[in-house]
Design brief:
Shape: elongated
Largest sheet: none
Distance between the termini: 50 Å
Helix content: over 70%
Number of helices: 4
Strand content: under 5%
């Protein structure tokens, strides 16, 4: 991460706050909905890629047992 001086940080925060305050309510709601739909699954957020790999192995094993 790039280090910011205090002045740059204050400028960054101020710009983002102003963007938020001057955006319409509908636009903020649309952004909030978009963030919710792009969320990763619970298991991935909490346990990372390992949980997905384990679940795929289990599914593959079940598939081969049914053949």
């Amino acid at each position: 991460m790039i280090a910011m001086s205090a002045d740059e940080y204050v400028k960054y925060v101020t710009e983002n706050m102003l963007k938020y305050f001057f955006s319409s309510k509908e636009e903020r709601k649309k952004l909030k909905r978009a963030k919710k739909t792009n969320k990763d699954s619970f298991s991935y957020r909490w346990f990372g890629i390992v949980s997905i790999l384990i679940s795929q192995k289990i599914k593959a094993r079940k598939f081969h047992l049914n053949e």
